[in-house]
Amino acid sequence: MSTHLQVRGLTAGYRRSTVLHDVSAEVRPGGWLGIIGPNGSGKSTLLKAVAGVLGHRGEVLVDGRRLAGLSSRERARAVGYAPQIPQLPIGLTVTDYVLLGRTPHLGLLGREGRGDLDVVRSLLERLDLVHYADRALATLSGGERQRAVLARALAQQAGILLLDEPTTGLDVGHAQALLDLVDDLRAELGTTVVTTLHDLTLAAQYAERLLLLDEGRVAGAGPPEEVLTAQALSERYSARVAVLRTADGAPVIAPVRG
User: Fold this and answer.
1) Most buried residue, 67, 134, 164, 190, by most Cβ within 10 Å?
2) pLDDT at 78 over 70
3) In what order do the strands lie in the sheet containing 65-66?
4) Is the pTM of this model over 0.85?
């Protein structure tokens, strides 16, 4: 299921305001690209454009094929997208909502089978949602809803998984568990992952490569240890930070009081 993603000269925005300017990126099959940058730099806009939910100029290629040229069913099997602020349907339970992610894989009758239910049950277990399986979405806390949204995207089992700020509202334990699960899917299924993340340390420890955006343009790209330098973060974030290292050399970004 490994899928190659290419973004070429992407320009996008809202109404008369251009947010992204000629952004290009590439993610190898089974790779993980972390998109970082200060507030308003265009991270979510880039993900929306790649997902095909926002009009744009430029090209998004999936295994060499233009995403815009695929049928809706082909797109749903190729790309799964979890937005930062999803529109949740009223009245559905957590299980029913996560089952919506299986829609691209259903047969002509549109009925889920044992295999679909097994996928959903496994995700609820791994995301600590089993106790909420029969609860209405509206009764969940912010962090619980966030995990349900991610479970739905993961249930889609698309070749490319786009996650917009997936750890928002999660405590450190659930954030790590979620990112561990995404990493496991990369290993098990070869899923290609693109995430936006505010937490630079998490981005450095999970993503293989980072794309740093600033004012809608690419300001840096490469392995985390090359992109996350004290100078670059000072310039792009107007922040005082120290870049420390874990035992295996991954960057840890620590704010420094002035």
Assistant:
1) 164
2) yes
3) 17-27, 5-14, 56-62, 65-66
4) yes
